[in-house]
Amino acid sequence: MKSFLKNTLVAILAILGFANLQAQESAKKRIDGVVGVVGDYVILDSDIDNGLIEAKAMGYSSTDLTRCRVFGTLLETRLFTHQAIQDSIVIADDEINSRMDEQIDRMVEQVGSVDNVVKYYNKKNYEDFREYFFDIMKQNQLASRMQNKLVSEVTITPEEIRQFYNKIPKDSLPMVGDEIELAEIVMKPEITKEQRQATIDKLNEIRQDVLDGASFASKVYMYSEDTNSLKAGGFFVLNKKSQYVKEFKDVAFSMREGEVSKPFETEYGFHIIHLERINGKNLEVRHILISPKPTEEAMEKAKTELDNLRIRILNKEITFADAARQYSQEKETRNNGGVMMDANGETRFELNRMEDRILYAMVNNLQLNEISQTTMVVNPQTNLVGYKIVQLTNKIPEHAADFSNDYMKIRFAALKEKQNEEIGKWMSKTIDDTYIYINDDYKNCDFRSNWNKN
Fold this sequence. Notes:
Shape: globular
Number of strands: 13
Largest sheet: 4 strands, antiparallel
Order of helices and strands: HHEEHHHHHHEEHHHEHEEEHHHEHEEEHE
Low-confidence stretches: 1-31
């Protein structure tokens, strides 16, 4: 069963065909009618129209896009949403409203005014549009949370990874593009006591507002600098095995349900946590992160120190690895001589798939063992600013995936397959236990799941 986790059309359908308004406005309007029902959720013919045109606007191949495929994705989303309600998964209205405000702002940038947005959606007024759009966004957020819940405890063993690899025909092994291995040295500007205290005071002010009745989720959107969790209103599920820094987990697991922590520090800055719910071994939390901001003088000093260290390395007064161990202020890479790893613990970076465009620019033209120029970088998760130099330590030509050398990539693919299988089993059972209606016009669709219950 193909991946239900890639959000192929779910995210697209969340905004219901907005990216290419001109094309959609000229599209033939269909008479709206109910084409499907999943539990308490209705799917209209116009939902399929909007999803289909939006998917094309996003670059999906026309040969892969059919009304049946879009309809199938809508059915899946509604099933996840329906079950999320049954499982008492809750998303605060404040979170949805904050996310919706951001989305509407982007829409207005595209078409010039709120009135144009309301007109496109054929709503009577702005309030009518917000009510409609709120429901769409909430359904998709619930669906996403439900999927995450289903796979949160799926693990995979080394033997399962080996079996996954061995079942791939040797002449069908995926190709891995040109790869490189890198090492880094990072210098961060000094933060004064006054800047640290100002950050703590701000978080205490936010905390008091929440204790006085303000919404924590709204405060996340207003103040948090953790871009990873910001999309979910600062929400995530935490357990003892989660890969979070020790200080964060220590605070979270010392809290009572409903409590808001006092400010505390990690390497990323200062946090406060709201423990919303204890669910077995899992904690459902929200957090706000704010990092103290350095002065221009502190920034210039950090850059000068790294420039001087780079010259020492080039003059062979010290090796790059030893310099990283002694001077780098990047905790995750310092102790291993600056060796960089991705989120999956892989030391190899496929050059043409690098998402960090600043890093790509730093290393794209480097020769083996060459060192980049000193470059200012911003941590995409926390907005922390610093300076970095990078050494290209190894080059690996394009090759067929190898079990030993590409183990982490194979592990990731194997785990995804196992997660997909888990969701597939869940869907088959849940479809059987849920009221499903499919309009006669779509009963002959070749769905990925047995929506017709044949």
